[in-house]
Structure to design on (405 residues):
C-alpha cells in the first residue's frame, strides 16, 4: 500500500515539474529574467516591470527597461 | 460684430495642427570626443545641465546620490547631493533638474511628489514644494517664470499643467493630440503612454514636448497661448496596451530628451522597437539620432552620433552639445555640431 502511495506521489511530482518546464518555454519572459538578474533584485516586488532603464513603472515607482 | 465673433472663435480654437515629416533632407554623422570625468560611479546618467562654472549630472538610478556637480574646467567632482534614501531629508527618486536665472537649483522627485530647491551655494535644501495631489504623478517639469512651473498632465484630461511655487495648480492646458481616427477615452493609461520629456525656453516662450513612445514632437507657444506645431515622424503616436489601467509600452522607444534653444529645437531619438528589446537582441541604452527642428517644427537636420546617449545639453553659441553615454565607463561626450 505504501509503495503504491509513494509511486503515486512521485508520478504527481514528475507531472507537475514537466508542466512547469513546458509552460516556461511558451513565454519569453524567463529569457528576459535570466538576462536581467540584477533587475529582478532591483524590482523584486514587481510582476510587470523589468530591467534598469528610463521607462516609468508607476506601480513600483521605479524606472525600468521593459514593462509587461 | 459677426466678424469680431468669428475672429474670437477662431482664436479660441485649440484643435492642434498635425504635420508629418518623412526622410530627412540633411543627415550628418558626428564623432564625439570623450571628456574624462572624475571617478564618480554613476549607474544611469540621464540628464545634464551646464551653468557656466559647473556641470550638473542627474543619475536616474544613483546608488547613493542622484546629483553630482563637476567643475566645468577640470571636470573634478565638486559636490554630490540629493541622497537616495527613505529619510526625511532623502530622495526617493529623481526625474529632472533645472536651474533658474538666479542660479537656484531644482530637482523633481516624482515618488515624493516634490520639487526641491537649493540656493546657489547648495549648502542645504532651501525649500521643498509639495505638489498638488490632483497632479497624481509628475514625471517632468520646467521653470516658466519666477512664480510658475510647467508639468505634463498625468490624468489624461489635459496636456500640461501650470503650477505655482506652492505646488498649486494655476491652469490646465490643451489636450493630448490624438488624431481623429484614433480617438480614445482620456485616462491615466493614455497619459502614461503619452509620457513626454519637456523643455521650455522663457526667452521665446516655446514649450517642447517629445514623447518617450512613438514619434511625436509637440510645440506650444506659452506666451502667445497657441499650438505651434504637432510634428509626427513615421512611427506616429505612442502605441500601448491598456493592462489593468496601466499603459504597457508597445511599438517603439521614441524620444529621450529635448532642448529648446534660441534658434532651434533639439530632440534625441532612440527609434528601437520593443520587440527587439524584449527579445534581448538590443541591450544598448540610448539613442544616436539627434534631430534638429526650427522653432516652427520644420526639420532642419538629423545628426547620427557615434555613441548612444540618454541626455544632452546644447551650447548654441559654440555649436556644441554635451551628452551622456551610459554604455561607457566614461559617460561624458562632447559633439561639435
Amino acid at each position: 500500500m505504501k509503495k503504491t502511495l509513494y509511486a503515486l506521489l512521485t508520478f504527481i511530482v514528475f507531472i507537475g515539474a514537466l508542466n512547469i518546464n513546458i509552460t516556461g518555454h511558451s513565454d519569453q519572459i524567463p529569457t528576459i529574467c535570466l538576462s536581467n538578474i540584477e533587475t529582478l533584485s532591483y524590482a523584486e516586488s514587481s510582476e510587470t516591470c523589468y530591467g534598469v532603464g528610463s521607462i516609468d513603472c508607476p506601480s513600483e515607482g521605479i524606472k525600468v527597461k521593459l514593462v509587461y | 460684430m459677426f466678424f469680431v465673433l468669428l475672429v474670437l472663435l477662431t482664436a479660441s480654437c485649440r484643435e492642434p495642427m498635425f504635420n508629418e515629416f518623412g526622410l530627412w533632407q540633411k543627415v550628418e554623422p558626428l564623432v564625439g570626443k570623450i571628456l574624462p570625468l572624475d571617478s564618480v560611479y554613476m549607474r544611469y546618467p540621464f540628464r545634464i545641465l551646464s551653468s557656466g562654472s559647473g556641470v550638473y549630472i542627474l543619475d536616474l538610478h544613483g546608488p547613493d546620490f542622484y546629483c553630482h556637480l563637476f567643475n566645468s574646467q577640470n571636470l573634478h567632482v565638486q559636490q554630490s547631493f540629493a541622497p537616495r534614501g527613505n529619510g526625511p531629508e532623502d530622495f526617493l527618486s529623481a526625474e529632472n533638474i533645472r536651474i533658474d536665472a538666479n542660479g537656484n537649483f531644482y530637482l523633481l522627485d516624482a515618488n515624493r511628489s516634490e520639487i526641491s530647491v537649493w540656493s546657489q551655494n547648495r549648502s542645504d535644501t532651501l525649500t521643498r514644494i509639495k505638489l498638488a495631489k490632483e497632479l497624481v504623478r509628475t514625471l517632468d517639469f520646467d521653470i516658466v517664470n519666477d512664480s510658475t512651473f510647467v508639468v505634463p498632465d498625468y490624468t489624461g484630461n489635459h496636456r500640461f499643467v501650470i503650477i505655482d511655487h506652492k505646488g498649486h495648480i494655476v491652469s490646465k492646458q490643451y489636450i493630448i493630440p490624438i488624431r481623429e481616427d484614433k480617438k480614445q477615452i482620456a485616462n491615466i493609461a493614455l497619459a502614461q503612454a503619452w509620457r513626454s520629456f519637456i523643455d521650455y525656453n522663457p526667452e521665446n516662450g516655446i514649450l517642447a514636448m517629445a514623447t518617450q513612445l512613438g514619434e511625436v514632437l509637440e510645440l506650444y507657444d506659452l506666451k502667445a497661448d497657441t499650438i505651434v506645431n504637432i510634428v509626427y515622424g513615421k512611427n506616429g503616436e505612442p502605441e500601448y496596451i491598456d493592462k489593468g489601467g496601466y499603459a504597457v509600452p508597445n511599438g517603439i522607444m521614441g524620444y529621450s530628451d529635448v532642448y529648446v534653444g534660441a534658434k532651434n529645437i533639439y530632440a534625441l531619438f532612440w527609434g528601437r522597437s520593443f520587440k527587439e528589446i524584449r527579445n534581448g537582441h538590443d541591450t544598448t541604452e540610448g539613442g544616436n539620432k539627434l534631430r534638429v527642428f526650427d522653432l516652427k517644427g520644420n526639420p532642419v537636420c538629423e545628426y547620427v552620433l557615434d555613441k548612444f546617449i540618454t541626455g544632452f545639453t546644447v551650447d548654441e553659441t559654440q555649436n556644441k552639445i554635451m551628452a551622456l553615454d551610459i554604455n561607457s565607463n566614461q559617460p561624458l561626450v562632447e559633439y561639435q555640431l
